[in-house]
Design brief:
D-Maltodextrin-Binding Protein, domain 2, 7-stranded mixed β-sheet, 3-stranded parallel β-sheet, globular
Amino acid sequence: MKNESNLTRRFPKPAALIGAIVLLLAACSSPTPPPVQPTPAASTTTPADGVDRNRLSPELSIYIWSEYLAPEVVEKFEQAYGVRVVIDTYEDNESLFAKLQAGGNPGYDLIVPSDYMVERMIKAGMLEKIDWANVPNIRNIGEDYLNLYFDPDQQYSVPYFWGTTGIAYDAERVSSEITSWRDIFEPRDEIKGRIGLLNDQRETIGAALRYLGYSANSANPAEIEAAKELLLRHKQYVAGYYDSIVARDNLISGDVVVAMTYPGDAMVAAQQKSSIKYLIPQDGATIWQDAWCIPVGAPHKYTAEVFLNFILRPDIAALNANALGYPTTNSEAVRLGLIDPALAQNPTIYPDLKSWGNRLEFLKHFEGNVQALYDRAWTEVGIGQ
C-alpha cells in the first residue's frame, strides 16, 4: 500500500492553467447536461455469514441423545435463520442404528452417534459426506479431535463433545472414597442394592472386562464369557440398569448411591446436590467422542450444514458446553477462555490424556462373530428384559 503522507500536490504550470480557463468558458456557453444518475449498488444476496437464505428449509430435524443440546443454542439458531428445529431423542447408539437401518431415514437431517457407531454407519453406507465449503468453522476444532480412527479422512462427521464413562457417587452416603471398578464389582455392604449401571451393552460389558484386567475391546470368547458371568453374579447388588439421564436423577433423589454415567450428567447432578462427585476409575475407562453426522436421505442437507457451522462458532460452542457440562472439541472456545473455569480446570472433565495413557480406550466397532458374542452375553445377562 502506498504511504499517502508522502504524496505532494503540485500547482499546474501556467500553460496548463490557461488551457483549463478556456475549457471552463466553453462549458459555460454550452447547454447544461442532465445530471448524472448514480449507479445503483449491487444487491447483496449472501450476507456476511456466507449463508444463502434462499436455500434454507423452513424446518430442521435432529435425532440426538436426551438433553444433549442446550435449548438456548436452538433458540439462537431459530432466531438467526428463521428455521424451526424439531428434536427427537434416543438413549443409546444401538437404538439409533436400529431405527435408521430398519426402515431407512424417516426424515432426520442430523444425528449424533458416538465414535464406534460413526465407523459402523460409514461402513453401512448410512452417512452423507459433508460439504466443508458450507462448514468453514470446522477450523475451530482442535487437531486432537480430527481424523480419528472412525473417520480418518474427516469426510462424514463434525466433532461435538468428548469425555469419559466413569462413576458418580454421593460422598455423604459412603464411608470412604470410590476410586475404581473394584468398588463397583466388589461392593461394600453400604452400597449393595444401590448401584446404577448403564443399560448399554458395550459400556457395561466393557466395565466388567476392565475390572477383570482385560480390554473393553476384547475379542476373546473366554474373556467375554467371564465378563458375562461377572455381571450375572453382580445383578443382585444392582438397583437398575439405566440410561444416563435416569441414573443422574436417581443419584439426585437418593435411589442410588453410586452410578455409572457420563461427566455432563454428573455435573448437572452435582449442581443440584453438591455431595455428588464424578471420577474416572483408576483401572481405566472408556474415552469417547460424539459427532454430528448427516444421514443418507436427509431432506435438508444444506440447512443441516448451516446449523453445523453455527454451533462451531466459539461463542455458541461455549454456551452449549457450559450449559451441559461436557468437554467440548472446540479448542478455539477453550483458547479464548469462554469455557467456565469450573469445568475447564476440572481434571475429571478435561483429563490429561497423556497421563492416563492406554487406561483410556475408545470402544471399537465389531462385526460378525465377535459382535455376536457380545449380543449373546448381553441377552443372557438379561438386562432390560
